[in-house]
Amino acid sequence: MALNVVNLLATSRFAEYLDLDHFSAEVDLDFDPDRFPGLTYKIETPKVCALIFRSGRIVITGAKTLEDVETALEITHKALRENGCEVWNDYQYSIGNVVVTHDLGKELNLAHLTLSLPMARTEWEPEQFPGLIYRLKDASAVCLIFSSGKCVITGNTSLEEAQDAVDGLIADLSAV
């Protein structure tokens, strides 16, 4: 089964310091450090957002594939360089969060799941949030399970970890 990736969050660093006042003026973007310390740089293709910080840190959000992450970083790096910012020639990136969705294909009784799944890893307060929050054993992933059978799994740091989380969730739910 293919993963349905809805968001990859990646971080990188392009420099020791970036002059965001200069860059925002060059590319005609609003930059208000009193409201948010970073500059929001929207990329159309792929449709992602790069958050650029004075520290030289870059956060890519909204990507659906690793190729989207790499393309967004290349576009952002090139835009900074071409608009007078001193950036390093080489940079690395790391994935900080992978968010996936999964549809179990059937409706779920969340009250029953709350009693059937390990209590220490389960939270359900329907007055606060319509989904059941389930933490997988031995994983950093957190699953939001809805009565429709749809699930959002977040907190993974790789696509492999996300697949393992989906598999673990399916196994845990089929055991109840």
CATH arch. level architecture of the largest domain = 2-Layer Sandwich
Identify the CATH homologous superfamily of the largest domain: TATA-Binding Protein
Ends distance:
22 Å
Report the major sheet.
9 strands, antiparallel
Provide the spatial order of strands within the biggest beta sheet.
2-3-4-1-5-9-8-7-6
User: For the CA atoms, what is the radius of gyration?
Assistant: 20 Å
Q: Unreliable stretches, pLDDT < 50, 5 or more residues?
A: none
Q: What is the string of helix and strand elements?
A: EHEEEHEHEEEEH
* Approximate helicity band: 25-40%
Q: Give the overall silhouette.
A: elongated
| Content of β-strand | 25-35%
Mean pLDDT: 94
Number of domains: 2
Class from secondary-structure proportions: alpha+beta
What does this molecule look like?
- This protein has two domains: 9-91, TATA-Binding Protein, CATH 3.30.310; 97-174, TATA-Binding Protein (2-Layer Sandwich), CATH 3.30.310.10.
- The longest helix has 17 residues, at 66-82.
- A hairpin with a 4-residue loop joins strand 2 and strand 3.
- The chain is built from four helices and nine strands; from the N terminus they run βαβββαβαββββα.
- Strands 2-3-4-1-5-9-8-7-6 form a nine-stranded antiparallel beta sheet, covered by helices on one side.
- It is 27% helix and 32% strand.
- The chain has 176 residues and is an alpha+beta fold.
